[in-house]
């Protein structure tokens, strides 16, 4: 099992290029089930993307990977595709459930493994099934699989989500894009990755009108050939913004649209982080004093739950007690015990963490538990004294492309062993 060894207290300076968005790439790959031929650029070559590629290969699509320029060429000459997404592929990458909508819409049936939970929560899919039933699908859960069918095809209608869900919104848009007639979705997720999926579907010929949390999809579109560039990864960008704020002296992040991460930038500036934004780069300068803050995670445009673990490490440097309320997932504080072993003073009451600062962190052997918790341990290792050894870094590899290389290029002493 590989580990990451970090020698802390090195001041970082240099340039970090931000990769394409994992969470935009995954639904866009699912949407490519509709296409005969499509090219996708700015794809992050991370584990979850390769798992989705493996799943699409299993379904019957042919995917050429171009490692030189991070692009994928997807060819799909077959009329009949395999409508099964097996447990062995979906269990490691829950977003595999996003092929349910497209397979059902295209083949009138689908058998997709229930994704199961993960470290951060039970991750139910009831909202995904709710919307597919509204579109006319028959759904049965048997032997750990979702069996969905729509003999006469899906029929568009008006649907209001009882609560906001990124994945369920994406599955709904995908299914509705090949339903008969128009579908109106209300109370949708408006994460930038959902918008990127909509832009992709429009590029391959689907007519979609989105306004606030309302999305209108005109079904039965005829897919056309296209090339599409995936948006930047705003969570990777936020992660390196926080790492630079805590361990940097002068860092530039490239390939960023700062309008998309307004909330994160506002919060970091309120904490005293020195940030300068340009057209498609952001400079972070050495921040002397970090101020405490109270944050609540919420759906976009609120503060993202995917940056909760990372900002908690910055809070250990703030004067006084910072507070972070995790409103999205029920078990997303798995990084706290590990940070406490490095000297952080954090108390948890229900879904709220109280972080006492400033504290000095000391290097330790720690264990990664999920994707974003593992990167919070990397950030802690950058500022801790002595060495930090992080176990189970396969979690990291799911969502961060070339992490060691990007940090090494900024003078960090980090290596995979
Ligand atoms: C997406 O997960 C992201 N994953 C997550 O990023 C992210 O944390 C999450 O959105 C919230 O922003 C991808 O895009 C691949 P949700 P998703 O449906 O779609 C509950 C990462 O680190 N819910 O918006 O699964 C759910 O339990 C990952 O990259 C239901 O109750 O998130 C949660 O409490 C982690 N029923 C809340 O809604 C459902 O059917 C929000 O989940 C679906 C969700």
Structure description:
The relative contact order is 0.16. α4 packs parallel to α6 and α8 runs parallel beside α12. The longest helix is centred in the middle third of the chain and has 14 residues. This protein folds into 2 domains: 200 residues, UDP-n-acetylglucosamine1-carboxyvinyl-transferase, Chain (Alpha-beta prism), CATH 3.65.10.10; 208 residues, Enolpyruvate transferase domain (UDP-n-acetylglucosamine1-carboxyvinyl-transferase, Chain). It has 14 helices and 24 strands. The model has no long low-confidence stretch (mean pLDDT 96). It is globular, with a radius of gyration of 21 Å. Strands 22-23-1-24 form a 4-stranded mixed beta sheet. A 4-stranded mixed beta sheet has the order 2-15-17-16, with helices on one face. With 417 residues, it is of the alpha/beta class. The protein binds ligand EPZ. Ligand EPZ binds next to α1, α5, α6 and α12.
List the helices and strands and how they pair.
Elements: E1 4-7, E2 12-17, H1 22-31, E3 37-41, H2 47-59, E4 62-66, E5 71-75, E6 84-85, H3 87-90, H4 100-107, E7 109-113, H5 126-134, E8 138-142, E9 145-149, E10 158-160, H6 166-176, E11 182-186, H7 192-203, E12 207-211, E13 214-218, E14 226-229, H8 234-247, E15 248-254, H9 262-270, E16 274-277, E17 281-285, E18 294-296, H10 308-315, E19 320-325, H11 335-341, E20 345-349, E21 352-357, E22 365-367, H12 371-383, E23 387-391, H13 394-397, H14 403-408, E24 413-416
Parallel strand pairs: 2-15, 3-14, 6-7, 10-11, 18-19, 22-23
Antiparallel strand pairs: 1-23, 1-24, 3-5, 4-5, 7-9, 8-9, 11-13, 12-13, 15-17, 16-17, 19-21, 20-21
Helix pairs in contact: 1-2, 1-7, 4-6, 5-6, 8-10, 8-12, 10-12
The chain binds ligand EPZ.
């Amino acid at each position: 099992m590989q580990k990451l060894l970090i020698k802390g207290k090195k001041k970082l300076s240099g340039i970090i290029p931000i990769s394409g968005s994992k969470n935009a790439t995954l639904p866009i790959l699912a949407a490519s089930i509709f296409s005969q031929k499509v090219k996708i650029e700015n794809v992050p070559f991370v584990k979850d993307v390769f798992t989705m590629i493996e799943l699409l290969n299993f379904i019957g699509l042919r995917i050429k990977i171009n490692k030189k320029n991070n692009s994928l060429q997807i060819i799909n000459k077959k009329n009949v595709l395999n409508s099964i997404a097996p447990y062995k592929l979906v269990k490691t990458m829950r977003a595999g459930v996003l092929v349910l909508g497209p397979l059902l819409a295209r083949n009138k049936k689908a058998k997709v493994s229930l994704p199961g939970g993960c470290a951060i929560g039970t991750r139910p899919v009831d909202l995904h099934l709710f919307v597919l039933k509204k579109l006319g699908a028959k759904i049965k859960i048997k032997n750990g699989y979702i069996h969905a069918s729509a003999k006469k095809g899906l029929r568009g209608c008006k649907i209001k989500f009882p609560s906001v869900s990124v994945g369920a919104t994406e599955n709904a848009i995908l299914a509705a894009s090949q339903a008969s007639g128009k579908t109106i979705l209300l109370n949708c997720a408006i994460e930038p990755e959902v918008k990127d999926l909509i832009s992709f579907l429009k590029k391959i010929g689907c007519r979609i009108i989105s306004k606030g949390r309302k999305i209108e999809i005109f079904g039965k579109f005829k897919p056309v050939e296209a090339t599409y560039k995936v948006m930047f990864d705003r969570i990777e960008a936020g992660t390196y913004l926080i790492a630079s704020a805590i361990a940097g002296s002068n860092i530039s992040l490239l390939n960023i649209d700062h309008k998309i991460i307004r909330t994160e930038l506002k919060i970091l500036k309120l904490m005293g982080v020195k940030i300068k934004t340009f057209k498609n780069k952001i400079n972070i300068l050495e921040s002397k004093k970090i101020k405490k803050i109270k944050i609540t995670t919420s759906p976009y445009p609120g503060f993202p739950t995917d940056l909760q673990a990372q900002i908690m490490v910055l809070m250990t440097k703030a004067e006084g007690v910072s507070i972070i309320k995790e409103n999205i997932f029920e078990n997303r504080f798995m990084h706290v015990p590990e940070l406490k072993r490095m000297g952080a003073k954090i108390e948890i009451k229900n879904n709220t963490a109280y972080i006492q600062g400033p504290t000095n962190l000391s290097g330790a052997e720690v264990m990664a538990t999920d994707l974003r918790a593992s990167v919070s341990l990397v950030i802690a290792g950058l500022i801790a004294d002595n060495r930090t050894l992080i176990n189970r870094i396969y979690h990291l590899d799911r969502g961060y492309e070339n992490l060691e290389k990007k940090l090494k290029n900024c003078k960090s002493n980090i290596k995979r062993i």
